[in-house]
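Lecture notes, unit on protein representations.

Consider one protein chain, 150 amino acids long.
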Amino acid sequence: MVVGASSVETAEDEAAGAGEHARTSQLRRRLGRADLRAVPETRRALRELLRHWGRPGRSDVAELLTSELVTNALVHTDRDAVLTATVGPHGLRVEVRDFVTRRPRLRVPNADDGTHGRGLFLVQSLADAWGVRAHGVGKAVWFELDAGAA
């Protein structure tokens, strides 16, 4: 299975009402169906995107949460997915879009489940905001992190 092309883009957007220019960088990557090699590859690409971003530890949290969303999309949908990570002046937004309409369920981790069932619980616990939205054919699961939050 082949991991699709990825790209990092940088753009200058005019800050709302301030007349300043703020850098916005974006990572986009197509994730091949059931290709779990995409998880560490995505972590490395995100680490590069975030190497000068946020307070210490914020990029580690971003990598963990991104890994959870990517893994969930590849394991639970048996379809391709698309990752978009955008770093802007106010923080980071990561979105993983898949092509299955079934919404993920947030479960409280159970000790009997081993390592399963903790992904969305981690996202809920560590992200500043997160959610699921319908997206044409399928859905997008997303989270946001403020660069300065502790």
